[in-house]
Amino acid sequence: MYESFIGLEIHIHLLTASKVFCGCANRFGDEPNTNVCPVCMGYPGALPTLNDEAMKLSYIVARALNCEISAEAVFERKSYFYPDMSKNYQISQFTSPLGRNGWIDIAHNGKSQRVRIHELHLEEDAGKMIHAGDMSLLDYNRAGMSLLEIVTEPDMKTGEEAELLLQTFRRMVRYLGVCDGNMEEGSLRCDGNVSINRTGAGLGRKVEIKNLNSSRFVKMALNFEIERQKEVLDSGGKIVQETRLWNENRDVTEPMRSKESATDYRYFPDPDLPPFVPTPEFLASVDAALVELPGARKGRFIKDYGLGEAAAEFLVNEKSTADFYEDVVRLGAAPDAAANWLQFDVQKILNRDNRELAGGPLTAGRLAELLALLAGGRIHGKIAKQLLEAVFAEDKDPALIIKEKGWESMDDSAQLGALVEKALAENPKAVDAVKAGDPKPMGFLVGQIMKASAGRADTLIVQKLLKEKIGGL
Length: 473
Ligand SMILES: [Zn+2]
Prior knowledge:
The chain is α+β, with helices and mostly antiparallel strands and about 475 residues long. The chain has 15 helices and 14 strands. The chain has helices spanning about 50-65, 160-175, 215-235, 280-290, 295-305, 310-315, 320-330, 335-355, 365-375, 380-395, 400-405, 415-425, 430-435, 440-450, 460-470, and strands at about 1-15, 70, 75-80, 90, 100-110, 110-125, 130, 135-140, 145-150, 190-200, 205-210, 240-245, 250-260, 270. The strands form three sheets. A nine-stranded mixed sheet has the order 2-5-6-9-1-10-11-12-13. Strands 4-3-14 form a three-stranded antiparallel sheet, with no helix packed on it. The termini are far apart. The relative contact order is 0.09. Bound molecules: zinc ion. The site of zinc ion has 8 residues, from loops.
């Protein structure tokens, strides 16, 4: 029997306005080579300056991952040649990264599982090489973007666990507002390392897998690699320490290069950048920027609002949705009704029209108003759904819409009495059946009256009036 060990290296682009060591814009999708300057192009004599905001965002992640904070974070040069890195070295951290020995919990099979964080360091990204036919093109817009690398311990055993860790981490950084988590644009990237060994023998020889640009590929590639290594060992072979690439067209990992060791990179402290020393004031500003994370928030929603697991999970998935929900409840809506409407009726419209909740016509105030109209009996369930559609379509307050459209409930007995009389007169067969003791046509009669009132009649009053009148016939 074999045991498997999986660790992840996750890279995130921090949401800063400028790059990490120069003033160039930190933006995806611009014309190639327009966001460049002598510093990020590595011209001789150009000097880097550390971006304070990038440091702050990095420490926010370090705190959220429960890391020990280093007394000083040292920037080092990692030397290697690659065409997309014109300096021939990358500024990174090696001997003293900013955070170490943290952890993150993932919810796996209904249980909480802890994955240790080995370290967290800030470095600069390289440019991008694009191969087109027999040409290779270089875009240096990405060179020098702030890249935070998070290295986990090999605490996971399956591709499913690794996928879950990546999803949990992605949601966390989006909550913290430090990264948009967009894997398609490369602002969140992931490499995995896998080793297997006979059960009880400890870690095996590590194979690194690159190019895992979706959480689904993380799962597929790591599971594939575990099976591949098992087959190698079963047939008497040895695992080679190497870097492999996930081929998403063939669903296999393929050899890329044998792995360099740290000594090959000849790390040494960058003489142009002093070590960063986090002061108590700096750390206080970091702590002030921390927010309640999704796992904790979900637990609180279940406890404080009496929500079920699925509703709480849905609401906390995006911070903006969770904030919206709490605003609606704060404005007086019943917690379960607000959760229900957001999860089903509202979400249905958002999906259908491919729109976002945040910034749209339905504000927390308007949903709270709609729910209050419904709870107070001024409108009925069917009208409430129509009203929700109308809020999205007309961008007006619910009370104004029901006034304009005349959708308010009809609970005036005299008015309803006339509708009941009319229904009885038009449906003598149904009335006779009810009189003979068959309760079924009652539903039909109520339906006729609802139709005649365009859904505005109060069903309880209608039922009461129907019973009285049929009884008196
Ligand atoms: Zn620059």
